[in-house]
Each structure stands twice: as structure tokens, then as C-alpha cells.
Write a structure and sequence with these properties.
Keywords: Amino-acid transport, Cell inner membrane, Cell membrane, Ion transport, Membrane, Sodium, Sodium transport, Symport, Transmembrane, Transmembrane helix, Transport
Protein name: Sodium/proline symporter
Order of helices and strands: HHHHHHHHHHHHHHHHEEH
Membrane topology: Multi-pass membrane protein
CATH class: Mainly Alpha
Function: Catalyzes the sodium-dependent uptake of extracellular L-proline.
Shape: globular
Helix content: over 70%
Distance between the termini: 60 Å
Strand content: under 5%
Largest sheet: 2 strands, antiparallel
CATH superfamily: Sodium/glucose cotransporter
Strand order of the largest sheet: 1-2
GO cellular component, one term: plasma membrane
Number of strands: 2
Structural class: mainly alpha
Radius of gyration: 22 Å
CATH architecture: Up-down Bundle
CATH topology: Sodium/glucose cotransporter
């Protein structure tokens, strides 16, 4: 492997560790600092942190791979995500920022739900913690799969080596610096990811062997006359299963926790504008990598055994080693930003919503921070075990975990922020229903084939039934008195 690639990667790793050390000295003296960075993120850091922790290796591996294999019709996933993210910033972000602080300064989503519905606080904390740890173990595994594939494809190394190397670097800065480290590294990683996704499709399209727009279209027409069609062959169920990915945003703890940490409610609008601009550019770039990458591969007789590695293959072929190292760092950035966020949310749920409630109701702040650090390592090891199969598909693992969170927490978060009649019993019913329906749908294989027909993405029945459970149970149960919120100064 060329020296230039290693130089770029070593520089990237050192920057991540340096940020971890800075954050360790700056913001880990209390659980609020370790879990939420003291609620003092700037709009830019909050926006790119939310975006980078959201997109993950899916943006550079899963989405380009899907487009490479099936054509532009797969772009509906990105369209649904963009709309869902925008609504999330408008509806959830300002309300969650204000209400989590007002309801006894809740540091986690389970903590907010417990304070919002005190009559069922213990149940909500425990069930939420279980759902978060279970689905995040799977979600984190998808990121480690991406790291394994990078080392295997780009460096001719072992898949397991890639899994453990990715996890090791993430653990260093996450354990050291907590939420501030994760957010600052996300900001850097988000900038790297967007720049890579602007550079890659342009170079692929206009390099000497790329052919430009016209030749790319002609080449893709020989693969499939409908390769560049958004609608050809698209069924209603297929379209719904793609665009309803956007429903998942309302229930992703590692994303909406950024809303809780932005420095003020007034700063949310600025963060939204920055975040949506970043997301739009990055999604267009990922679509370009998949579509133009397929045209390049066909024109040049390039064999790509795993479509999800097209970004890696093109980076290795078309660029100077120093630039290739930068592009590989972008891929690692996408992976690590999400893995670190998920590990931190899992650990905060275990330390704040399990340890404080079950093990020690009056621990010191230092004790809670250390328990959180231990939990980060424990969840990471479980995720590495799940990611042990090199045949795992990044998009498949992400879709399952995304649906689980979206159905379990999505209706719950939206209604708890906007509907005063909602009850604690309704909250528990929605949480359990959403998670159970998603798990059952996957176990029965109905996401692949529903009653002999086309499969239905599990988030659709999970989200709908969870919402109905919340409304139905809330209407037949008495509202609790509610936690007395802080007085506003």
C-alpha cells in the first residue's frame, strides 16, 4: 500500500485522538458534560454532528452500492430521508431542546420520557434502555462492517482486523472525551465526507476514461434502458418502502440528542439551515458515485464484486495516494461518526437510565461518567461480535435498526412533544408496540415478501401501529399529574 495513503490515514487518526484528549480536559467533569457536552454546542457543530452521525458508512457504501446495482430508482430512499430530516428539524428540534431542559434537565430521551410521564417513569426508562441497547448494537455493527470492508478491499487486509481497528480508534476518543469529543469529531468528519462526495463523482464523470454526462447516459442505457428512471418498474409498495425511511428520523436517539445539546432554542433554525444544506449536497454526491461509478465500471471493463465497495474501488484507481488516503479517511469518518454517537447514546442510557435507577440511586458524578465509559466498551464489543460475518450488508443492518428506532420512538417523541392528552400508559404501549412489530415483521420475513407479494418495509406497520397504540391507550387512561417543570426565568 502506497505510503501516501498511510500518511493521510495516520494524520486523520491523530486528529481524532487529539480531539478526544481536548474534550477529556474540557468537558467530562459531570454526567451532563459527558452525555450532552453541557448543552453548549454551536449551530454548526450541532448540525454537522447530527448529519454525520446520521449518514454513517451507509452514505458512502450502502446508498452508492444500491444505486450501482439497481439504478436511480434507489434514490427515493435519499429523497425520503431528506424530507424526513427537514420535518424533524422543524417539528422536533426546537420543542425537544426546550422541553428536555424544562422537564428537570433530562439528559437522555428515556430520562425526558420518564419526567414527562412520572406515573410510568421506571417502566419507560427500563424499556427504553433495552430498546436502545438492542437496536444500537445492531446499528453499530453495520458501521463496523463498513470498517471491515474498507480494510479488506482497500488494504488487502483481514476483515476482522478492519472491524477491530475501527472499533479501537472510536473507543479511544469516545471513552476519553464523551459527547463533546463525538460532536467535534463529527464536525470534522462531516466536512471531510461532504468534500469527498463532491470530488468523487466529478472526477469519475470527467476523467479521461469517464466520458462525461452524455457518454455515461449511453453506457448506462446498455446496462438497462431504465437505469436512470426514477419511476420505471417502481411499485406503490416499493415507493412507500423507500420514502418511509424518512419516518425513522423522529425516533433516532443518536440524532435527536443533538437537538438537546444545541446552545439555545433560537440557534436551532441556524443549525437546521446548515444541516439541510450539508445533507442535500452529500446525498447528491452519493447518488453520483453510484450512478456514474456504474457507467465508469462498464466503460472500462471494471469488475466490482461487491457493489457496496464502489467508492473504495474508484478511490484506489483514480487518485494520487495522498488523495486516496483522504477519501478513505472520509469513509472512515462516515463510519466512525455514527459508531461513536451510537456507543455514547447506548452508554448514557445504561448509566443514566439503568445504573442510576437500579444499581445506585445516588452515585457521584465521577462514578456515573466512569460507568458510561465502561458501557461504551461493552456495547462496542457486542457490536463487533454481531459484525463478525464478512458477508453482512451495511444497508440491510442499517435498515433493520433504523426501522426499530423509528417505530419505537418516532410516534412517541412526536406525540409527547405536541399532544398534552398523552398518558404514561399510552407511552409504554407505543414504545413496546413499535419495537415488537418491527422485530416480528423481520422475523416473519414480511419485509422481503408479504403474504406472497412484495415486501413492506417494517417501519411502516411499526410506526402506524405504535401511533395508534399511543392514541388509543391514552384516550382510555387518566393523564398523570406530570413532572413539575422548571420555572422559566
Amino acid at each position: 500500500m502506497a505510503t501516501g495513503i498511510w500518511i493521510s490515514l495516520v494524520i486523520y487518526f491523530l486528529i481524532m485522538v487529539a480531539i478526544g484528549l481536548y474534550s477529556w480536559r474540557k468537558s467530562t467533569s459531570s454526567s451532563e458534560e459527558y452525555v450532552l457536552g453541557g448543552r453548549n454546542l454551536s449551530p454548526g457543530v450541532a448540525a454537522l454532528s447530527a448529519g454525520a452521525s446520521d449518514m454513517s458508512g451507509w452514505l458512502l457504501l450502502g446508498l452508492p452500492g444500491a444505486l450501482y446495482a439497481s439504478g436511480l430508482v434507489e434514490a427515493w430512499i435519499g429523497i425520503g430521508l431528506f424530507v424526513g430530516a427537514l420535518v424533524n428539524w422543524i417539528v422536533v428540534a426546537p420543542r425537544l431542546r426546550e422541553q428536555t431542559e424544562r422537564y428537570d434537565n433530562a439528559l437522555t430521551i428515556p430520562g425526558f420520557l420518564a419526567n414527562r410521564f412520572p406515573s410510568h417513569s421506571g417502566t419507560l426508562r427500563m424499556v427504553s434502555a433495552v430498546v436502545i441497547v438492542v437496536f444500537f448494537a445492531v446499528y453499530t455493527a453495520s458501521g463496523l462492517v463498513g470498517g471491515g470492508k474498507l480494510v479488506q478491499s482497500a488494504f488487502d487486509g483481514g476483515y476482522q482486523t478492519g472491524v477491530w481497528l475501527t472499533l479501537g480508534v472510536v473507543l479511544v476518543y469516545t471513552v476519553l472525551g464523551g459527547f463533546l469529543a463525538v460532536s467535534l469529531t463529527d464536525f470534522v468528519q462531516g466536512c471531510i465526507m461532504m468534500l469527498a462526495l463532491v470530488i468523487m463523482p466529478l472526477v469519475v464523470l470527467f476523467s479521461g476514461q469517464g466520458g462525461g454526462f452524455d457518454q455515461a447516459g449511453e453506457t448506462l442505457a446498455t446496462v438497462d434502458p431504465n437505469f436512470l428512471s426514477l419511476t420505471e418498474g417502481l411499485t406503490l409498495l416499493g415507493w412507500l418502502s423507500a420514502v418511509t425511511w424518512g419516518l425513522g428520523y423522529f425516533g433516532q436517539p443518536h440524532i435527536i440528542v443533538r437537538f438537546m445539546a444545541v446552545r439555545s432554542v433560537e440557534a436551532v433554525a441556524t443549525a437546521r439551515n446548515i444541516g439541510m444544506t450539508w445533507m442535500g449536497i452529500s446525498l447528491l454526491g452519493a447518488i453520483g458515485v453510484g450512478v456514474f461509478g456504474r457507467a465508469y465500471a462498464v466503460r472500462n471493463g471494471l469488475e466490482v464484486n461487491d457493489p457496496e465497495t464502489i467508492f473504495i474501488v474508484l478511490a484506489d484507481l483514480l487518485f494520487h495516494p495522498l488523495v486516496t488516503g483522504f477519501l478513505f479517511a472520509a469513509l472512515l469518518a462516515a463510519i466512525m461518526s455514527t459508531v461513536s454517537s451510537q456507543l455514547l447514546v447506548s452508554s448514557s442510557s445504561l448509566s443514566e437510565d439503568f445504573y442510576r435507577i437500579v444499581v445506585d440511586r445516588d452515585p457521584s458524578e465521577r462514578e456515573v461518567v466512569n460507568i458510561g465509559r465502561i458501557a461504551v466498551v461493552a456495547v462496542g464489543i457486542v457490536a463487533a461480535f454481531i459484525a463478525r460475518d464478512p458477508e453482512s450488508q451495511v444497508l440491510g443492518l442499517v435498515s433493520n435498526a433504523w426501522a426499530g428506532f423509528g417505530a419505537a420512538f418516532g410516534p412517541l417523541v412526536i406525540l409527547s412533544l405536541t399532544w398534552s392528552r398523552m398518558t404514561g400508559a399510552g407511552a409504554v404501549a407505543g414504545l413496546v408496540t413499535g419495537a415488537a412489530v418491527v422485530i416480528a415483521w423481520i422475523a416473519l420475513g414480511w419485509n422481503a415478501s408479504f403474504l406472497g407479494g412484495a415486501g413492506i418495509y417494517e417501519i411502516i406497520p411499526g410506526f402506524i401501529l405504535a401511533g395508534l397504540a399511543i392514541v388509543g391507550v391514552s384516550l382510555v387512561t387518566e393523564p398523570g399529574t406530570g413532572f413539575r417543570p422548571r420555572e422559566q426565568s
